[in-house]
Amino acid sequence: MKLLVFAGRSNVGKSTLFSALFGVRVRKGKRPGTTIKPNQLRAGDVLAVDLPGYGYMKGVSWEYSERVRDFIVHYIENNANSIVLAIQVIDISSFREIVERWESRGEKPIDIEMCEFLNEVCRNVIVAANKADKLDRKELERELGYAREKLRTEVIPISAKRGDVKRLKSRITEVLTKEGVSISFRH
Q1: Using DSSP, how many helices (H) and how many strands (E) does the chain show?
Q2: Count of CB atoms within 10 A of residue 142's CB?
Q3: 183 domain residue, yes or no
Q4: 187 in a structural domain
Q5: What whole-number distance in Å separates Cα of residue 184 and Cα of residue 20?
């Protein structure tokens, strides 16, 4: 079975996006780190997989957070041959602030590191810039430009909470069709 994987930091809206795309309710919570086991759904010829969030998780130890990150990395590495598309979800409203905070400490930002990893391992990668509705048009264009420059991959603005995922859904279908894989979005 071919895989469509969703990855991203905790609390960026991966599970909300998963629900918006597939019209299903998935376990999710109001605090970071709620999704700890992957949510999976068969959607046509693909198995859509909502991976746990990486990075900050409220109320858990650093060691636990690292175990979750290791799980995600190993899952992607072990399934690389089956992954036809990886969607990395970011919070576009806070992306610049987070990147600059990491870079000011002389560290590689976790979102950039994950995007580079996905591009190394997966054939196709799209970044879903979630929470676009939190920015006005001018701010959004500026932040999308910044994200595209930093991530060096395709970035599509969305608002999963509002169900504004039409452009992403269309692009997913286009990429999978080129891969000879069909997908069905339910609603």
Answers
A1: 6, 6
A2: 13
A3: no
A4: no
A5: 13
The per-residue DSSP string of 48-62 comes to: EEEPPPBS--TTS-H
pTM value surpassing 0.90 = yes
Amino acid at residue number 58: K
Q: Which residues contact 46 (CB under 8 A, 6 or more apart)?
A: 1, 2, 3, 4, 84, 176, 181, 183
Under the banding of pLDDT at 50, 70 and 90, the label for residue 24 is confident
In a domain, 17, yes or no: yes
By DSSP bridging, strand 125-130 and strand 39-43 are unpaired
Percent of the chain that is helix, strand, coil (3-state, to 5): 40, 20, 35
Amino acid at 11: N
CATH number at residue 97: 3.40.50.300
Is 44 exposed, middle or buried, given 0-12, 13-18 or 19+ CB atoms closer than 10 A? Answer: middle
The answer to whether position 149 is within a domain reads yes
Identify the domain containing residue 57 by its residue range.
2-178
Q: How far apart are CA 84 and CA 46, in angstroms?
A: 9
pLDDT above 70 (res 33): no
